[in-house]
Amino acid sequence: MTRWVDTHGHLHLRAGFEPSPEVGSGEPSRLARGDDDSAVLLDRAAAAGVGWMVNPGTDAASSEESFRLAARFPGVVLPTAGLHPHDAARWPAQADAIARLAAGAVAVGECGLDFYRNLSAPEDQVTAFRDQLRLAADLDKPVIVHCRDAFAQIHDLLESTGCGPRAVLHCWTGGPRWTKRFDALGVSFSFAGPLVFPTGDTVRRGAAVAPPERTMVETDTPYLNPIDKAAPNEPANVVRVGEALAEVWGIPVNEVAEMTTATATRVFRHG
Ligand SMILES: [Zn+2]
What we know:
This protein has one domain: Metal-dependent hydrolases (TIM Barrel). It is built from 9 helices and 8 strands. The chain has helices at residues 38-47, 60-72, 91-102, 122-139, 151-161, 176-183, 201-208, 238-249, 253-267, and strands at 4-6, 50-55, 77-81, 107-114, 143-148, 167-170, 188-191, 215-217. Strands 1-2-3-4-5-6-7-8 form an 8-stranded parallel sheet, sandwiched between helices. The chain is globular. The chain starts with a strand and ends with a helix. Bound molecules: zinc ion. Zinc ion (ZN) binds at residues 8, 10, 56, 110, 220.
């Protein structure tokens, strides 16, 4: 029985993942033998009530990897195709491949703007993001958006392109003001580990004003483990994010499961 949906997890990045020393103890990965196998992780997710997950690609090769996982776990892992802002400089070389893959995916992305790490030039990021918004509109699909230190720019691009209602703002970290401004564009919000972290007060204040009918939960596997920051994340942990949302909203956890799953089913047209 599907109780939860993890709307954003990179299963293909889990194998070999080691948490960054800045958030962890610096110990090597704590993965037990065989623990990085997607089948093991999905079994644990199913046992926790996670019915299915969206596995976003971040470039052409990882989008193909996402499709391979989807073929191996039909109906449980859903593929997307997109180019992450970190790699935006590669957009001209990848645009055709990503467009071809996106036609068969449940969403375009992950794409967006990251003016925190700035691993690609800002103008390249804007071009790649705008083109992927257009691709999502052409294909009539949702678009998974990565937003870091780029609230105003992403807000304005979603507004000017009319893509707000198809945007899923993944790992949303905005406070109440930005949450309300984006809500007015009709976007969907997806919350991750930062909603749980002790440092997450701003995120929690944002979540308090997020529209329940357009809010979802995710893990961002293998990053942002909400239970043990030093360990790699996995889809089963989406339940902990849902519990945090229930605390913020002051409602029972099962209602959060029902609402977020209904939203994911509608947004990704799967269920
Ligand atoms: Zn991601």
